[in-house]
Structure formats: structure tokens, C-alpha cells
Amino acid sequence: MQNYICKTCGTQFKATENPPEHCPICEDERQYIGWNGQAWTTMDTLLQDHHNIFKSPEDNLTGIGTHPGFAIGQRALLVQSSPGNVLWDCISLLDQATIAFVRSLGGISAIAISHPHFYSSMLEWSHAFDAPIYLHAADRQWVQRPDSMIQFWEGETKVLAEGLTLIHCGGHFPGSSVLHWAQGMNGKGALLTGDTLQVVSDRRYVSFMYSYPNLIPLPAQVIKQIATAVEPYAFERVYGGWWDRNVFDDAKNALARSVARYLNATGH
Q1: CATH code 3.60.15.10 for 5-265
Q2: Would you kindly state where each structural domain of the chain is located, as residue ranges?
Q3: Which of the residues 119, 126, 145, 188 could staple to 149 if both were Cys, CB 3.0 to 4.6 A apart?
Q4: Cα–Cα distance, 128 to 136 (Å, whole number)
Q5: In Å, what is the CA distance from 16 to each residue of 4, 21, 150, 235?
Q6: Cα dihedral sign for 136, 63, 130, 50?
Q7: pTM score, whole prediction
């Protein structure tokens, strides 16, 4: 029995004798099936020619990503805080070197994930660190490896620890969320967004999509909903879902400019 991993989206599935016939996450119109057809791998196979790398963009924040890139290619973020470290978003590969490194930083007290494309091998991480996983209940149907460590939260916000708040935004998925880190950017605040707010290439703006690979936009009312959800929170910086896709300064105003630009471009 193997927990097979989809090569295109990086999601790990419940244990089966043979690879699953379908990946529902890739068959959904927000994602896509690989151009060479559905393909699978396993953790043991990934470990043969992949490893994780670590970068720290600021104090008490560590990025964890896989090299060479795999599946969607996102990196996770470990927020180090005195109440306990929180892993934001997740990646498919977990090796002993990563476990040792994360333990040297204090381990993981909780895992929170923005949306189903980044569920990846979340149960491997959860079991390794005995950390509960927090997913918004609106995305419950996309979990491919059920487990008692998964806790579904409801409503518009959830406080994980002092200064660490999950905010339900919707948009990309019904349960798409961001993490507000009040102590980020020297106490000015930071938003960890995955691609609920996608940092674009010039890194002065963010954008919003129903599907990024298939270029399906979101309606105006959903963009306003996202902006309203994060408005009460102070943040000077946005950390997107990939290495270097970050808005480093004046991020709250950058979001306001981005919303206005999007609405204007779509005729609103």
C-alpha cells in the first residue's frame, strides 16, 4: 500500500495498492491534468532526486521549498512564535533533514493551509510533528487523505495563537484563506497569502483569479469580499506562495491599488 502523490498538483492520496485512477483536484477546472496524462509518484521516489531548501526573508520566518521544483512549486512558510510555530501552506516532500532543521527551530505546533492546491503531503508533516491541521470547512470535499489530525474551522476568522489569525477570504476556492502575522515586518504586520492574493511579477501589486493556469477571472463582488475580509488588519508586507513573490513595502496600499486596477479592468 502506498500513499501516491499526483505529479501535477503534488497532492498525496490515501494509501492504495495501485495508483488512483483520477486526481479530482487536477480534474477541476481551476487546475489541469498534466499534458502527458495523469501521473503519480511516491515519497520514496521523490526522495531519490529531490531535497528541501530553506531561506529566511526576515526574523522568525523561514521558507521551505523543494529543489528541483515539483508539481505547483510553492514553498511553505514557518512562522516562529513564542506560543508555538505555525507552518503556513505545505509542500509534498518531507525528509529527515527537514524534520531535523524544523525541530531545531522549535518544531511545529499547528499547520494551516490556504486552499486545496497546497494540501500536498500535509499528513506527513502533521504526523512528524504531532501538529493539527487547520482547513476551512468550505473546502472539506477536496481532502484526499482523511485523518483525525485535520480540524475544519468555520466562520470568518480563527485565532491560532496570539498575533496569528486565519482570515477567510474566498475567491480562488470557497474556503481560500490568508494568515495575518501581527509581529511580521517588525511589528507592522504581514499577510501570508498563498495565491488567495497572488503577488504578480512586478511585486507592486497582487491579483486574484478563480483559475490561474486556465486564466479564469473572479467576479467583482468576490474581489470586494476579499478586500473587506483583510481590511481590519494592519500589514506592511505580503508573502505570496512562491519564492520571491512578495510585496515588501506598503502592502496594504498595494492591495487597495490592486483591487481598484482589477475592478477598472473588468468594467467596474
Answers
A1: yes
A2: 5-265
A3: 126
A4: 22
A5: 8, 11, 20, 44
A6: positive
A7: 0.97
